[in-house]
Amino acid sequence: MTQAPMSCDGDTRSSSKRPFVVIATYNEKENIQVLIPEILRVAPEMQVLVVDDSSPDGTSESVRQMAVENPRVHLLLRGRRMGYGSACIAGFKEALRLGAATIFTMDADLSHDPRDLLRLAEGLENSDVVIGSRYVGGIRILNWPLRRLVLSLWANWYVRTILRLPYTDCTSGFRAYRQEVLQEIDWQSVHSSGYAFLVEILFDIAGHGYSVSEAPVVYTERRAGQSKMSKAVVLEAVMRPWILKARRAVRRCRHKTRGRG
To answer: Is residue 132 within 8 Å of 120, Cβ to Cβ?
Structure first.
């Protein structure tokens, strides 16, 4: 069950039309205590919205305390662990409710540099969506073993090939969206719970004709905690592109049939 967002501002007008960064967390207390202050420092206008799935390590308590001390910090606390995709959707809806004009997403594990938020924001001047890419113009990944790099490159090739997406980093969670893009998506039709969610909404956004660009960012391996990647998440990532492709083919077939009728 979703609980009410924990925030100390008490007045949604204070955050109206500001940029929001949505951060999904589960057991990221150590990292989030470093990340949020850095975001607040480098991006003075940014509102930070953390969506936490009742982390047992006390992540929500840390964020709640920061929200008490700074009205730019918001907490959406959920009753149980429901997955990355679900957390992002909940965060998007809450940020839009609070009046966000632009919404960013980034990982909680310090793999994304908060300074690159400004680069993504610049990209929104000419695009509807900006992907913080690890691969555009060259590889910029620190402290990854070769096996993981190869797997990531293969995963992006796999997605691009099946879905015919032209982007170098379809699986990046470091993104910026204009408000109207997220309002256009039918969230009831989005079914990915893990990181395949990133591919699913990108495919949907591109299908609606929105402009998508990529900005080069540096990705660094997490400093603390454990990755949330599991066999179930990997399996979903493998299967979801085929499901998305089949779903679109069915829709086109139905559209043609109706047109003939």
So the answer is: yes
Where helices occur in the chain by DSSP H, the ranges are 29-42, 59-69, 84-97, 116-123, 146-163, 179-184, 196-207, 231-260
Q: What angle do CA 80, 83, 84 make, to 5 degrees?
A: 130
Give the Cα separation of 10 and 24 in Å (integer). Answer: 22
Strands 129-133 and 212-216: parallel
Domains and CATH numbers, the chain: 6-260 (3.90.550.10)
Tens-digit pLDDT profile for residues 209-260: 999 999 999 999 866 655 555 677 677 778 888 888 888 777 767 666 665 6
Residue 30 contacts residue 224 (beta carbons within 8 Å): yes
Indicate the length of the chain as a whole number. Answer: 261
Instruction: Compute the Cα dihedral for 89, 165, 159, 136 and give only its sign.
Output: negative
Sign of CA dihedral 144, 150, 151, 156: positive
Q: Is the predicted pLDDT of residue 100 greater than 90, yes or no?
A: yes
Coil, helix or strand at residue 48: strand
Beta pairing, strands 129-133 & 102-105: unpaired
Q: Where are the alpha helices (DSSP H) in 124-185?
A: 146-163, 179-184
Task: Measure the CA–CA gap between 15 and 46, rounded to whole angstroms.
Answer: 9
Among 149, 158, 129, CA closest to 239: 158
Quickly tell me which residue has 């610049």 as its tokens.
122
Among 240, 245, 259, smallest CA distance to 84 is for: 240
Q: Is 23 helix (H, G, I), strand (E, B) or coil?
A: strand
